[in-house]
């Protein structure tokens, strides 16, 4: 009986990984990798190469992907119930990037650019209001934001100290240097 109990968690995990239709773990991971992971690296490469055509390609991709993400955020609660939704999403994300299809450019030129041009004045006004309100909020809660920043800094420092004890950045506290370690081992040998 103990043997049966010990096999249950591994069987469940194996079923989750091998049966994407039931859990969608594999296909959702693939969507994240194809939709975000690979484009982030490709964008990095485009920026490093300073090739304007490649940079424009990835800017258009991110505009298309961002627009898709906004629509998906609203509709995902309904769409994920459809069979093979994540499989279709994966195919769509591949289509957005596939060089011969140039899906992101098609989506941008046919739908996104005309929509944004039509509503550009409204969006500019909305962005202006959001920037103003954000600045007001930041000024009104400046002390609280500084406290939150200090707390987060202390949390990250504590976490770093747990992971890498005895080492501080900027020379505050450091572990023993190579010379100190070798002199200590020489002293022990004597």
From TrEMBL:
Stretches the record annotates as Disordered:
169-190
For this protein, the parts annotated as crossing the membrane are: none
InterPro entries per the UniProt record, alphabetical: TB2_DP1_HVA22 (IPR004345)
Q: Pfam families under this entry?
A: TB2_DP1_HVA22
Q: Which residues form a coiled coil?
A: none
Compositional bias per record (Acidic residues), positions renumbered to this chain: 177-190
Per UniProt, what is the membrane topology?
Answer: Multi-pass membrane protein
Name any GO cellular component annotation.
membrane
* Cell compartment(s), UniProt: Membrane
User: Which family, according to UniProt?
Assistant: Belongs to the DP1 family.
Name of the molecule in the record:
HVA22-like protein
Starting at the broadest rank, the lineage of the source organism is:
Eukaryota, Viridiplantae, Streptophyta, Embryophyta, Tracheophyta
